[in-house]
Specification:
alpha/beta; TIM Barrel; 7-stranded mixed β-sheet; elongated; Jelly Rolls
């Protein structure tokens, strides 16, 4: 369809269009009607009702159910209108407002998104409209109209256009003389919440609930009178707490007018820490596998189903929270666990079988920002709390962007001080992150070398890279694995801290898959000097830690071909 500025600015006037106009709603709190001869009088008011959509779609009607009140994005306050054109319906929303005869009004609204039109009909004189094409940010539309000698009501409306994107409206204003309908009363702050109570407690969290407050759009939960956490419901779980510690909690209610007084305080004490135990020592030569806490088409596994060849099982992934640096863990129902307790039992069983179970942080779509002392502490505190709660042996750093060596090192040092010498600390950088010792990832690995278990670089989804001999190698070959691993081995990491990370199957990565035999050849090349390609290192490193794969699920999907081949090879290294 033609989207040029030659599109007519006016509205169609056929019967169906007029019917749609009757349903149109004035969107946004930006509609303004100015009374008199163009100058606002002392008695002039905004005669539009629910002009900012703080009360949903009250007072508005939208054609074919095309409109909805949303909480984001908004121009001001906590609500806005979002209307979506579909088929022959261009998502008109309207409201009838009371006006005074022979008066001038200024109509305005703030709009964003797709094509947006704003206008008024039934003015008794000349009906008006204005419009704007797609707008990525909030933009105000404004026009004026004058009512006829006997006009006491006018319909204000907004709509989009056929086949275009949804549009948003907020802060509608029809500013002029009061036509008898008055204006919206000024909002008032909500009452103080009642009934605050503590529920389930763990060593690192306290569940809270309270009664709903009329007119509240959100609640602030205070811990010991500070650090408010904003939520929209009437319950929350406060996490990241210290074990066996007493806390006081209060809650207040908020809306666009302000915040209520804090509720009466309720006290709760976190449970004593359950020491997860140091877990088994990581074998001299180890196989690491990532276990998927989500369903992406690979074979779904519970932890108990993870193949026996894996010595380190990285639970993927932790979640970030609203607190910068803090992490949480949320068990995905898609995995099939009946309860969190069932998952914890599987963690304990794997540890009893000699495996290390760690929590991976990051991944392709997840990231945690650690760029200050406060975020470093938040990370360490929350990571240790999760280790205590679930029994994890440690943490895997799989951050794929935004690594700050200074503060990530501080975070890992703090975590190590809490967890002790049994901490299992692994990393899974991309190839670009380990090309030289000046990269943030490499600097972090060297800075925590004394507490680092293994770096399993991802030798996939990479393209060509430089090897330690300065030559370019293409992924998917034994040379790519050996020549790039050589950079880390020569760059300061102990051989026991170097592992080869590869996909478990062709579906496990976008590119870079190699047959398990290629992995085994690379292991032989680095540890024994046999099985090499064109690149042959000047020395061997018999204590090389082993190999890693993404993921145990994709391995299972491929009939365990990867672990059945690579597992025995790793465990049989010298």
């Amino acid at each position: 369809m033609d989207r040029t500025t030659t599109r007519p600015h006016g509205r169609r006037t056929d019967g169906r269009r007029l019917l749609g106009g009757a349903l149109a709603l004035a969107v946004g709190s930006g509609l303004v009607l100015v009374g008199g001869a163009g100058t606002a009088q002392a008695a002039d008011v905004n005669v539009a009702k629910n002009a900012g959509f703080e009360n949903g779609l009250t007072n508005w009607s939208c054609s074919a159910g095309s409109g909805a009140a949303v909480s984001s994005p908004v121009h001001t306050g906590t609500g806005a209108l979002k209307a979506t054109p579909a088929g022959l319906d261009y998502a008109q929303c309207a409201q009838t407002v009371a006006v005074k005869p022979n008066s001038t009004y200024t109509l305005s609204a703030w709009v964003q998104g797709g094509y947006a039109y704003l206008g008024a009909t039934g003015t008794g004189t000349t009906d008006v409209s204005t419009w704007t094409p797609d707008s990525p940010s909030w933009k105000q539309l404004t026009t004026t109209f004058t009512t006829g000698a006997s006009t006491t009501s006018v319909q204000i409306w907004t709509h989009g256009w056929y086949g275009t994107s949804p549009y948003l409206v907020d802060d509608v204003s029809v500013f002029g003389p009061d036509g008898g309908g008055g204006q919206d009363p000024a909002p008032t702050a909500p009452a103080t919440p009642a009934g605050l109570a503590a529920g389930t407690v763990t060593s690192s969290s306290v569940a809270l609930s309270w009664g709903a407050v009329s007119g509240a759009t959100a609640y602030k939960v205070y811990r010991d009178g500070a650090n408010p956490q904003t939520v929209t419901g009437t319950s929350t779980t406060v996490t990241g707490l210290t074990a066996d510690t007493a806390y006081q909690f209060q809650v207040s209610a908020t809306n666009s007018a302000g915040e209520s007084a804090k509720s009466a305080a309720v006290s709760a004490r976190t449970a004593k820490a359950t020491d997860p135990g140091p877990g088994p020592a990581v074998p001299k030569h180890a196989v690491t596998g990532y276990w998927q806490n989500f369903d992406n088409g690979a074979a779904k596994q519970k932890l108990r189903d993870v193949q026996a060849a894996y010595d380190i099982i990285a639970v993927s992934f932790a979640d970030s929270t609203a607190t910068p640096g803090q992490i949480a863990f949320n068990l995905d129902p898609a995995v099939g666990y009946a309860s969190t307790a069932d998952f914890k039992a599987d963690v304990a069983a794997k540890k009893a079988a000699g495996k290390s179970v760690i929590l991976s942080v990051g991944g392709e779509k997840g990231n945690v920002t650690i760029n200050s002392d406060a975020t470093a502490t938040a990370f360490a505190d929350s990571a240790y709390a999760l280790m205590q709660e679930y029994g994890f042996n440690g943490i895997d750093i799989d951050l794929e962007h935004g690594v700050n060596a200074t503060y990530l090192t501080k975070a890992l040092r703090q975590l190590s001080a809490k967890a002790g010498s049994s901490l299992v600390l692994t990393m899974a950088p991309q190839t670009i992150d380990m090309q030289n010792t000046s990269s943030e990832y490499f600097k972090t690995a060297l800075a925590v070398k004394d507490i680092l278990t293994v770096v399993n670089t991802q030798y996939y989804n990479s393209g060509s890279m430089l090897g330690c001999d300065g030559k370019v190698y293409s992924q998917g070959s034994v040379d790519f694995l050996t020549a790039l691993a050589c950079i880390q081995l020569q760059g300061g990491l102990d051989p026991s801290q170097v592992g080869l990370g590869v996909p478990a199957s062709t579906r496990g990565a976008g590119s870079g898959y190699v047959d398990p035999q290629v992995v085994n050849n690379a292991l032989d090349c680095l540890t024994k000097g046999t099985g090499c390609g064109t690149f042959k290192p000047a020395q061997t490193w018999p204590s090389l830690r082993g190999a890693m794969t993404w993921s145990t699920n994709w391995d299972a999907t491929a009939g365990n071909a990867w672990s059945n081949a690579v597992g025995p090879k790793v465990h049989g290294l010298p």
